[in-house]
Design goal:
The protein has helices at residues 17-31, 52-66, 84-97, 112-127, 166-173, 197-213; strands at 8-12, 36-42, 69-75, 101-105, 144-148, 158-161, 219-223. By secondary structure, the protein is of the alpha/beta class.
Protein backbone atom coordinates (compact mmCIF):
# COMPACT_ATOMS: atom_id res chain seq x y z
CA UNK A 1 0.00 0.00 0.00
CA UNK A 2 1.49 3.38 -0.96
CA UNK A 3 1.76 5.93 1.82
CA UNK A 4 1.62 8.94 -0.49
CA UNK A 5 0.80 10.02 -4.02
CA UNK A 6 3.41 8.81 -6.50
CA UNK A 7 4.82 11.02 -9.23
CA UNK A 8 4.33 8.59 -12.09
CA UNK A 9 2.82 5.28 -13.14
CA UNK A 10 4.38 3.42 -16.09
CA UNK A 11 2.05 0.84 -17.64
CA UNK A 12 3.30 -1.93 -19.93
CA UNK A 13 1.52 -4.86 -21.54
CA UNK A 14 4.22 -7.33 -20.43
CA UNK A 15 7.07 -7.41 -17.95
CA UNK A 16 10.05 -5.88 -19.87
CA UNK A 17 7.98 -3.43 -22.00
CA UNK A 18 8.49 -0.52 -19.61
CA UNK A 19 12.22 -1.23 -19.37
CA UNK A 20 12.56 -1.14 -23.17
CA UNK A 21 10.30 1.85 -23.78
CA UNK A 22 11.05 4.24 -20.93
CA UNK A 23 13.50 2.60 -18.52
CA UNK A 24 16.03 5.41 -18.91
CA UNK A 25 13.37 8.03 -18.21
CA UNK A 26 12.31 6.22 -15.04
CA UNK A 27 15.94 6.19 -13.91
CA UNK A 28 16.22 9.93 -14.59
CA UNK A 29 13.03 10.58 -12.61
CA UNK A 30 14.38 8.51 -9.71
CA UNK A 31 17.59 10.56 -9.77
CA UNK A 32 15.41 13.66 -9.34
CA UNK A 33 13.81 12.18 -6.24
CA UNK A 34 10.58 11.17 -7.99
CA UNK A 35 8.69 8.09 -6.88
CA UNK A 36 6.81 5.82 -9.23
CA UNK A 37 5.17 2.46 -9.83
CA UNK A 38 5.33 0.09 -12.79
CA UNK A 39 2.13 -1.76 -13.70
CA UNK A 40 2.39 -4.85 -15.92
CA UNK A 41 -0.97 -5.71 -17.45
CA UNK A 42 -0.44 -9.40 -18.29
CA UNK A 43 1.07 -12.54 -16.80
CA UNK A 44 3.43 -13.08 -19.79
CA UNK A 45 2.13 -16.65 -20.11
CA UNK A 46 2.33 -16.61 -23.93
CA UNK A 47 6.05 -15.83 -24.00
CA UNK A 48 8.05 -18.30 -26.10
CA UNK A 49 10.93 -18.38 -23.63
CA UNK A 50 10.74 -18.84 -19.89
CA UNK A 51 7.63 -19.03 -17.71
CA UNK A 52 5.38 -16.52 -15.92
CA UNK A 53 7.12 -17.43 -12.67
CA UNK A 54 10.56 -16.70 -14.17
CA UNK A 55 9.31 -13.42 -15.66
CA UNK A 56 7.89 -12.37 -12.28
CA UNK A 57 11.30 -12.84 -10.64
CA UNK A 58 13.01 -10.99 -13.48
CA UNK A 59 10.49 -8.14 -13.24
CA UNK A 60 11.14 -7.80 -9.52
CA UNK A 61 14.89 -7.57 -10.13
CA UNK A 62 14.41 -4.99 -12.91
CA UNK A 63 12.15 -2.84 -10.72
CA UNK A 64 14.91 -2.74 -8.12
CA UNK A 65 17.32 -1.40 -10.75
CA UNK A 66 14.74 1.19 -11.83
CA UNK A 67 14.05 2.14 -8.19
CA UNK A 68 10.29 1.75 -8.66
CA UNK A 69 7.48 -0.25 -7.08
CA UNK A 70 5.83 -2.86 -9.30
CA UNK A 71 2.40 -4.48 -9.68
CA UNK A 72 1.18 -7.19 -12.09
CA UNK A 73 -2.55 -7.20 -12.90
CA UNK A 74 -2.47 -10.86 -14.03
CA UNK A 75 -4.56 -10.42 -17.18
CA UNK A 76 -4.21 -13.11 -19.88
CA UNK A 77 -1.26 -12.59 -22.20
CA UNK A 78 -2.20 -12.62 -25.89
CA UNK A 79 -5.88 -12.13 -25.11
CA UNK A 80 -5.74 -8.66 -23.60
CA UNK A 81 -8.84 -6.65 -24.52
CA UNK A 82 -10.04 -3.14 -23.79
CA UNK A 83 -13.09 -3.84 -21.63
CA UNK A 84 -14.43 -3.11 -18.19
CA UNK A 85 -12.57 -5.95 -16.44
CA UNK A 86 -9.17 -4.68 -17.55
CA UNK A 87 -10.12 -1.04 -17.07
CA UNK A 88 -11.35 -1.65 -13.52
CA UNK A 89 -8.15 -3.40 -12.49
CA UNK A 90 -6.16 -0.42 -13.69
CA UNK A 91 -8.61 2.09 -12.19
CA UNK A 92 -8.11 0.38 -8.82
CA UNK A 93 -4.33 0.93 -9.14
CA UNK A 94 -4.72 4.55 -10.27
CA UNK A 95 -6.93 5.34 -7.28
CA UNK A 96 -4.56 3.49 -4.97
CA UNK A 97 -1.27 5.05 -6.15
CA UNK A 98 -2.73 8.39 -7.35
CA UNK A 99 0.01 9.15 -9.92
CA UNK A 100 0.52 12.65 -11.28
CA UNK A 101 1.21 11.29 -14.78
CA UNK A 102 0.89 7.97 -16.60
CA UNK A 103 3.35 6.61 -19.17
CA UNK A 104 2.40 3.80 -21.56
CA UNK A 105 2.57 2.35 -25.07
CA UNK A 106 1.77 4.36 -28.19
CA UNK A 107 -1.66 3.40 -29.52
CA UNK A 108 -0.27 2.35 -32.94
CA UNK A 109 2.28 -0.27 -31.97
CA UNK A 110 2.50 -3.54 -33.86
CA UNK A 111 1.81 -5.86 -30.92
CA UNK A 112 -1.96 -6.18 -30.29
CA UNK A 113 -1.45 -6.32 -26.51
CA UNK A 114 0.46 -3.03 -26.69
CA UNK A 115 -2.38 -1.40 -28.63
CA UNK A 116 -4.96 -2.70 -26.17
CA UNK A 117 -2.90 -1.48 -23.20
CA UNK A 118 -2.79 2.02 -24.66
CA UNK A 119 -6.57 2.04 -25.06
CA UNK A 120 -7.17 0.60 -21.59
CA UNK A 121 -4.93 3.28 -20.07
CA UNK A 122 -6.79 6.11 -21.78
CA UNK A 123 -10.17 4.80 -20.62
CA UNK A 124 -8.99 4.04 -17.09
CA UNK A 125 -7.25 7.38 -16.57
CA UNK A 126 -10.43 9.26 -17.41
CA UNK A 127 -12.85 6.98 -15.55
CA UNK A 128 -10.71 6.89 -12.41
CA UNK A 129 -11.62 10.55 -11.91
CA UNK A 130 -15.39 10.04 -12.03
CA UNK A 131 -16.87 10.66 -8.58
CA UNK A 132 -19.95 8.49 -9.19
CA UNK A 133 -18.10 5.49 -10.63
CA UNK A 134 -19.00 2.34 -8.68
CA UNK A 135 -15.39 1.52 -7.82
CA UNK A 136 -13.60 1.60 -4.48
CA UNK A 137 -11.27 4.43 -3.60
CA UNK A 138 -11.33 8.19 -3.95
CA UNK A 139 -11.58 9.60 -7.48
CA UNK A 140 -8.25 10.53 -9.04
CA UNK A 141 -7.35 11.54 -12.59
CA UNK A 142 -3.67 11.87 -13.57
CA UNK A 143 -2.82 15.14 -15.29
CA UNK A 144 -1.19 13.74 -18.46
CA UNK A 145 -0.65 10.53 -20.41
CA UNK A 146 2.70 10.24 -22.17
CA UNK A 147 3.14 7.51 -24.79
CA UNK A 148 6.62 6.07 -25.30
CA UNK A 149 7.65 5.12 -28.82
CA UNK A 150 8.41 1.53 -29.73
CA UNK A 151 9.55 0.04 -33.04
CA UNK A 152 7.24 2.13 -35.22
CA UNK A 153 8.44 5.55 -36.30
CA UNK A 154 6.19 8.35 -35.07
CA UNK A 155 7.12 12.00 -34.67
CA UNK A 156 7.67 12.58 -30.94
CA UNK A 157 6.32 15.48 -28.91
CA UNK A 158 9.57 15.52 -26.92
CA UNK A 159 12.61 13.40 -26.03
CA UNK A 160 14.26 12.74 -22.67
CA UNK A 161 18.04 12.63 -22.44
CA UNK A 162 18.96 9.27 -20.88
CA UNK A 163 22.69 9.33 -21.67
CA UNK A 164 23.83 9.20 -18.00
CA UNK A 165 21.43 6.30 -17.37
CA UNK A 166 22.05 4.15 -20.46
CA UNK A 167 24.13 1.50 -18.69
CA UNK A 168 21.53 1.10 -15.94
CA UNK A 169 18.74 0.90 -18.53
CA UNK A 170 20.58 -2.01 -20.14
CA UNK A 171 21.10 -3.55 -16.71
CA UNK A 172 17.32 -3.42 -16.11
CA UNK A 173 16.59 -4.90 -19.55
CA UNK A 174 19.09 -7.72 -19.03
CA UNK A 175 17.44 -8.69 -15.76
CA UNK A 176 15.16 -10.59 -18.16
CA UNK A 177 17.69 -13.34 -18.77
CA UNK A 178 14.98 -15.54 -20.30
CA UNK A 179 14.15 -12.98 -22.97
CA UNK A 180 17.31 -11.30 -24.26
CA UNK A 181 20.68 -12.28 -25.64
CA UNK A 182 23.49 -12.77 -23.12
CA UNK A 183 26.26 -15.36 -22.57
CA UNK A 184 23.92 -17.78 -20.78
CA UNK A 185 20.87 -17.25 -22.99
CA UNK A 186 21.05 -20.75 -24.54
CA UNK A 187 19.70 -22.15 -21.28
CA UNK A 188 16.28 -20.95 -22.47
CA UNK A 189 14.75 -22.66 -25.50
CA UNK A 190 12.87 -20.92 -28.29
CA UNK A 191 13.87 -18.52 -31.04
CA UNK A 192 12.59 -14.95 -30.82
CA UNK A 193 13.62 -11.57 -32.18
CA UNK A 194 14.35 -10.31 -28.67
CA UNK A 195 16.76 -13.16 -27.97
CA UNK A 196 18.93 -12.39 -31.02
CA UNK A 197 22.20 -10.44 -30.65
CA UNK A 198 20.89 -8.04 -33.28
CA UNK A 199 18.05 -6.88 -31.04
CA UNK A 200 20.39 -5.40 -28.45
CA UNK A 201 22.18 -3.56 -31.26
CA UNK A 202 18.79 -2.33 -32.50
CA UNK A 203 17.91 -1.05 -29.03
CA UNK A 204 21.11 0.96 -28.91
CA UNK A 205 20.61 2.35 -32.41
CA UNK A 206 17.02 3.34 -31.66
CA UNK A 207 17.98 5.28 -28.54
CA UNK A 208 20.98 6.78 -30.32
CA UNK A 209 18.63 7.95 -33.10
CA UNK A 210 16.39 9.80 -30.67
CA UNK A 211 19.48 11.10 -28.90
CA UNK A 212 20.85 12.73 -32.03
CA UNK A 213 17.50 14.49 -32.51
CA UNK A 214 18.20 16.44 -29.31
CA UNK A 215 22.02 16.44 -29.67
CA UNK A 216 22.56 13.93 -26.91
CA UNK A 217 24.05 10.43 -26.99
CA UNK A 218 20.94 8.47 -25.93
CA UNK A 219 17.30 9.50 -25.56
CA UNK A 220 13.79 8.10 -25.25
CA UNK A 221 10.94 9.58 -27.26
CA UNK A 222 7.37 10.32 -26.21
CA UNK A 223 4.11 11.47 -27.74
CA UNK A 224 1.52 13.52 -25.85
CA UNK A 225 -1.90 13.89 -27.48
CA UNK A 226 -2.22 17.22 -25.67
CA UNK A 227 0.27 20.05 -26.06
CA UNK A 228 2.66 19.77 -23.09
CA UNK A 229 3.50 23.12 -21.52
CA UNK A 230 6.97 24.41 -20.60
CA UNK A 231 7.24 26.56 -17.47
CA UNK A 232 10.85 27.66 -17.87
CA UNK A 233 12.10 28.00 -21.45
CA UNK A 234 15.61 28.80 -20.21
CA UNK A 235 15.79 25.18 -19.02
CA UNK A 236 15.84 24.19 -22.69
CA UNK A 237 19.18 25.91 -23.25
CA UNK A 238 21.43 23.07 -22.13
CA UNK A 239 24.90 22.59 -23.60
CA UNK A 240 24.70 20.87 -27.01
CA UNK A 241 26.32 17.49 -27.57
CA UNK A 242 26.86 17.19 -23.83
Amino acid sequence: MPDTQVDFMAVGAHPDDVELGCGGTLLRLASLGKRGVIVDMTDASMGTRGTPEIRAKEAKAAAKVLKADRVNLGLPDGRLADGWEAQKRLIDQIRLWRPKIVITHHWQEEHPDHQQTSRIVKEAVYKAGLAKLDVAGKPHRPGRIFYFLGVELHEPSFCVDISPFWDDKLKAVLCYKSQFHHPGAKAFKGKTDLASPEFMEFLSVRNRFWGQRIKRRYAEAFVCSELPEVSDITALSGERFA
